[in-house]
């Protein structure tokens, strides 16, 4: 179960990121690069579980950004957030720093994701939290994984980077509302897999999109009360 360490509301208006948002059909949302659909991060139906159909992506982050994320961050520094803003599409966000305990799940048809938490908000509302990788675990470098396992096993807490969404689902039974809090990994696949394998915690720097989430401002505000 993740734990909220810090959060800050920001707007990005001059991003040079190649990533864009695209909405198509009922509650469908894609991340795209140069018009190519990178990942479906929407809700595909009212009764099905959250899913993401992903392909490859090249990150263009600088050495400075990589080094800081690899070493791990413990606060939301405005200068660092400004450096990161070139990687995030324009929009209105709440940046959050979370402590997460990723646990990988693999579906029979090959989809991989990490469970990050399950909370009951009320008797008829619950929140499911997922971390969704873009790269498959089979494509990861074992040497890098072992290096991060040694780090998280000693004292370091590396940080991963994600674009995140809060979406509302309305099942036919059991619950009136299911809140799907999903983090699409942009950087940190080796770190996340290593933390999962070592059964250790790590940190996640999340840009929660207020514009693209299928949730109201009131529900997003409630999210941060739930996470504390």
Q: Strand order across the biggest sheet? A: 1-5-11-9-10-8-7-6
**Average pLDDT taken over every residue:** 82
Report the portion of residues in β strands. 35-45%
Number of helices: 5
Integer tally of domains: 1
Q: What is the SS-derived class?
A: alpha+beta
Instruction: Round the Cα radius of gyration to an integer and report it.
Output: 17 Å
Question: Can you give keywords for this protein?
Answer:
228 residues; alpha+beta; 8-stranded mixed beta sheet; 3-stranded antiparallel beta sheet; 5 helices; 11 strands; 39% strand
What does this structure look like?
With 228 residues, the protein is α+β, with helices and mostly antiparallel strands. The protein has one domain. The protein is built from five helices and eleven strands. The strands form two sheets. It has an eight-stranded mixed sheet with strand order 1-5-11-9-10-8-7-6. The protein has a three-stranded antiparallel sheet with strand order 2-3-4, with no helix packed on it. A hairpin with a 5-residue loop joins strand 2 and strand 3. Helix 3 packs across helix 4. The longest helix has 13 residues.
């Amino acid at each position: 179960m993740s734990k909220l360490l810090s959060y800050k509301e920001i707007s990005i208006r001059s991003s040079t990121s190649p990533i864009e948002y695209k909405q198509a059909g009922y509650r469908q949302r894609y991340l795209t690069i140069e018009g190519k659909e990178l990942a479906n991060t929407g809700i595909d139906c009212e009764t099905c579980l959250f899913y993401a159909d992903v392909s490859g992506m090249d990150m263009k982050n600088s050495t400075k950004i990589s080094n800081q994320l690899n070493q791990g961050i413990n606060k939301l520094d405005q200068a660092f957030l400004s450096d990161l803003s070139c990687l995030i599409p324009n929009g209105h966000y709440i940046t959050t720093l979370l402590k997460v305990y990723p646990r990988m799940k693999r579906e029979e048809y090959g989809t991989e994701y990490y469970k990050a938490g399950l909370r009951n908000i009320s008797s008829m509302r619950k929140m499911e939290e997922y971390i969704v990788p873009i790269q498959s675990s089979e494509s990861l470098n074992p040497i890098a994984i072992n290096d991060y396992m040694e780090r998280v096993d000693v004292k370091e807490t590396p940080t991963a980077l994600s674009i995140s969404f809060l979406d509302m689902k309305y099942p036919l039974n059991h619950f009136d509302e299911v809140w799907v809090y999903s983090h699409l990994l942009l950087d940190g696949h080796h770190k996340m897999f290593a933390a999962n394998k070592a059964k250790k915690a790590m940190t996640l720097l999340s840009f929660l999109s207020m514009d693209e989430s299928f949730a109201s401002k009131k529900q997003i505000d409630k999210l941060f009360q739930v996470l504390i």
